[in-house]
Write a structure and sequence with these properties.
heterotrimer; A alpha/beta (about 280); B alpha/beta (about 260); C mainly alpha (about 325); B: Rossmann fold; C: about 325 residues; mainly alpha; ABC transporter involved in vitamin B12 uptake, BtuC
């Protein structure tokens, strides 16, 4: 809290001192200094990985990894960042995402601020994104090295011959799973598995419990707090499920590894591979 | 036996005290009129008698029983009230509305008995609304609606009937009909308390009339003693012309020239 | 005229029965006489929840419309749903989203909302209907805002809290939560029975407070009891299913068009029709609609056109 007040005062001083308004970057492309604001937690992780934390002037409340990111000036929530706070930092580039920041992006572009829109569809997309961010932060070399190291790490995960069915639960009341168009599907594929609900058109559909039992998944991943594997076993009619019978129900997983399309997806894939193929991969 | 005995009641809305140490006695079998200007407390008085409003001090007795001590059902079997206006949210039929008057005699989930149906028929016949029985209460005229409400009040088989300007929407024919019913009730020993803005109506049919102004009794006696120029001037601020009804001999009020 | 009533009852029972049969015999899983488990484990409980929830919403909606003398009222007017949503959000955020604690927390939240509305509605002269409605609106706004605040503060985006407001019959049961639901269902049945039992007094109180008093009804007591029992029963249901819109508002009107305004007919009729509508909606959600269509959307889609048709032909 104290840090924040100091930051606020420094910022106010800086703004007043420069006598500048919010229209930074409209003419000053000749600016050598890079000032970025990240509205996307996964991008924040990438920035730190590339050693660009000095250029990061602001991020969101949800940008909490690595730990140091928590002390950066907050411009608001990931769901609703504050335009005024962003502009007060006089950014040269703002990292945002769609569809969450649609209106904000339009406003920023109107004000002449450069906006990078993050939208990696799969793991390849994450690698591409790391490289793009590297370009924007003038750290292409470092980005290339990071991507190479991640790729070689990923190569340690073999291509498995069998592909167990996975049911991912993100909520129990109502019962919600993961459908198509969500990043985690690609991760599961790479880790040698298949999402039972990958064919459903919605990203986070509410599913019929009977349907889950009918699909008979081999592995159950509980991606929300408050539910233990024993409880899944106690659910009426769920004892029939292969995953429950074999005790392959996993909870207390770090959801950020699966829902943030950032550098830690590799950790996520490793974790998934271990869970899906416990005898073949450690 | 006094039908209604009001002793030293205090009642007001908010800061303003309307009735301050007000007392009134109404004998059983009286046809009792209440007149007075707007805001004098006529409606409020009726509601106090019916137990709908509670006085801040003092007591009200119905046939010797303390109003605050007897149950709502008991009150409803003794006394019924015909309000000035009625509004119905849902589309009740006339018959259903009159049957509601039998509520004080029905246990919570009991169905109406033959006796209840007979009474409902009887009072609908008396008030002339039998042909309307299946119609929606919101589809009939204001006058017809008022007669249905009177029927409902009669279905309660009350000892006392309170009417709050109940004839104001009725045409001459129906006005007279209702008054005839009320006189009939009185002859059967029931007590009728008749609030009216029509001074001639009150004067014409009541045995005693109360002239109320700002919660105070200006006069309470036979019509001849109440319908007097000075009293009416004090109450209404108007000097009417008092004449005498050629057939009944009761005082009649005529408006002064403009 | 009498045959019309008979026909009406027959129609309602038929509607519900047909829906129940579809609910039990359609679905993704195959079943045989040897293996009735999909039916017993999943579809019968859904049927049970649907009948209880739909029935309760119909009965309480009808009772509140009479009590509050307002045909535009539904069971959510008095703040119950927002209380349940708040309880559920707190449970989810605190990480206790288990199948037992979540409905429990939602129910407690509902009770809290009821208590708050009751306290706010008391004033000089006791509880009046106007104060109840105002208090309900205030509490609804307050609790909905708190839910939004929790959504913002918590790490998860709580899509579940939003869905809680849209209704769902697919409750995941464990043995203990199934017992808890059975208790809730019994309480709900008892509450509905109480309301039906007091049908005539509801008729009278729907006129006007003073007239009801003069006809011998203890208006204060009835208002209090109908509000408390009705809200309690709705809370016991919404803790499991979330807020399902439309049923509590429109079903009583449809039944009134069929039987007239007497609560002795409207309340049981609303139970049957409410249950039927909800079961049919669930059949659609489970079989036809793409995954995850909220129940409330389907109930509205079924009911609104039908209601418009009735409005044009009968009113």
């Amino acid at each position: 809290m104290g840090n924040r007040i100091i930051m606020m005062l420094l910022l106010i001083g800086a703004v007043l001192g420069c006598g500048g308004g919010p229209k930074s970057g409209s003419k000053g492309k000749a600016d050598k200094e890079i000032r970025c604001v990240s509205l996307v937690p996964s991008i924040t992780e990438i920035i730190y990985l590339l050693g660009g934390e000095g250029l990061l002037k602001g991020n969101t409340n949800q940008c909490d990894y690595p730990k140091e990111a928590q002390w950066v000036y907050k411009v608001g929530d990931f769901q609703a960042p504050d335009l005024e706070r962003i502009m007060a930092l006089k950014p040269t580039v703002v990292f945002a995402t769609l569809p969450m920041h649609k209106q904000l992006i339009e406003k920023l572009q109107e004000l002449g601020v450069r906006v990078y829109i993050s939208a990696p569809r799969d793991i390849e997309g994450v690698f591409a994104e790391i490289e793009s961010v590297g370009v924007l932060l003038a750290r292409e070399e470092r980005a290339k090295r990071v991507v190479d190291s991640l790729k070689s790490r990923l190569a340690l995960v073999p291509l498995f011959s069998d592909s167990p069915w996975v049911y991912i639960e993100i909520s129990v009341a109502p019962l919600m799973s993961v459908g198509s168009g969500v990043f985690i599907n690609d991760m599961i594929c790479r880790a040698g598995g298949r999402n039972v609900f990958a064919d459903l058109p919605l990203p986070y559909p509410v599913v019929n419990p009977e349907l889950v039992v009918n699909k008979n998944p081999d592995v159950v991943l509980i991606l929300h707090p408050g539910t233990e594997p024993v409880e899944v076993k106690a659910r009426v009619g769920w004892q029939k499920i292969s995953a429950v019978k074999r005790g392959r129900v996993y909870a207390h997983l770090n959801e950020d590894l699966f829902f943030r399309p950032g550098p830690r997806v590799i950790d996520g894939i490793f974790l998934l591979a271990r869970l899906l193929h416990p005898d073949r991969f450690q | 036996m006094k039908a209604i005995e009001i002793k030293d009641i205090k009642f007001g809305f908010g800061e303003r005290l309307l009735f301050d140490r007000f007392s009134l006695d109404i004998e059983a079998g009286e046809f009792f009129g209440v007149i007075g200007p707007n805001g004098s407390g006529k409606s409020t008085l009726l509601r106090l008698c019916a137990g709908i409003l509670k006085p801040e001090a003092g007591r009200i007795h119905l046939f010797g029983k303390d109003l605050s001590r007897i149950s709502r059902r008991q009150i409803a079997r003794t006394l019924s009230i015909v309000p000035q206006e009625s509004f119905f949210t849902f589309e009740w039929t006339v018959e259903q509305v009159v049957m509601m008057g039998r509520n004080p005699f029905l246990m919570t989930f009991a169905r109406p008995t033959v006796r209840d149906w007979e009474k409902v028929e009887e009072v609908m016949g008396l008030t002339g609304v039998l042909e309307l029985r299946g119609k929606s209460i919101n589809s009939i005229s204001a006058g017809e609606k008022q007669r249905v409400i009177v029927a409902r009040a009669l279905a309660q088989e009350p000892e006392i009937v309170l009417l709050d300007e109940a004839t104001s929407h009725l045409d001459l024919f129906h006005r007279l009909e209702i008054v005839r019913i009320l006189v009939q009730l009185k002859n059967q020993g029931k007590t009728v308390v008749f609030v009216s803005h029509d001074l001639n109506e009150a004067s014409g049919y009541c045995s005693r009339v109360l002239l109320l102004a700002s919660g105070k009794t200006l006069a309470c006696a036979q019509p001849e003693m109440v319908i007097k120029r000075e009293l009416l001037k004090e109450a209404y601020g108007v000097e009417p012309v008092i004449s005498v009804h050629p057939l009944t001999g009761r005082p009649q009020v005529l408006l002064p020239p403009a | 005229m009498r045959y019309k009533k008979r026909l009406g009852w027959f129609g309602l029972v038929l509607f519900l029965s047909a829906g129940a049969i579809l609910e039990v015999f359609t679905g993704p899983a195959r079943f045989s006489f040897k293996d009735l488990s999909p039916i017993v484990n999943f579809r019968l409980p859904r049927l049970g929840i649907g009948v209880v929830a739909g029935g309760v919403l119909g009965v309480v909606g009808g009772s509140l419309q009479g009590l509050l003398r307002n045909p535009l009222v539904d069971p959510w007017t008095l703040g119950v749903a927002s209380g349940a949503a708040l309880g559920a959000s707190i449970a989810i955020t605190a990480g206790s989203g288990t199948s037992l604690l979540l409905p429990g927390a939602a129910f407690l939240g509902a009770l809290f909302a009821i208590g708050l509305v009751y306290l706010l509605a008391r004033g000089r002269g006791g509880i009046t209907v106007t104060r109840l409605v105002l208090a309900g609106v205030i509490v609804s706004f307050l609790f909905s805002s708190l839910v939004m605040l929790i959504m913002v503060l918590s790490r998860h985006t709580l899509g579940e809290a939003v869905y809680l407001m849209m209704g769902n019959l697919g409750v995941v049961f464990t043995k203990s939560s199934a017992w808890l639901f059975a208790v809730c269902a019994l309480l709900a049945a008892a509450g509905c029975a109480w309301l039906v039992f007091h049908a005539r007094e509801l008729d009278i109180v729907s006129l006007n407070e003073e007239v009801a008093l003069s006809l011998g009804v203890d208006v204060q007591r009835l208002t209090r009891m109908v509000f408390l029992i009705g809200s309690f029963v709705v809370g016991a249901v919404v803790a499991w299913t979330g807020a399902i819109s439309f049923v509590g508002l429109i079903v009583p009107h449809l039944v009134r068009m069929l039987f007239g305004p007497r609560h002795a007919l409207v309340l049981p009729g609303s139970f049957l029709l409410g249950a039927g509508v909800l079961i049919w909606a669930d059949v659609i959600v489970r079989n036809i609609a793409p995954a995850g269509l909220p129940l409330s959307v389907v109930t509205a889609l079924i009911g609104v056109p039908f209601f418009i048709y009735l409005l044009r032909t009968r009113v």
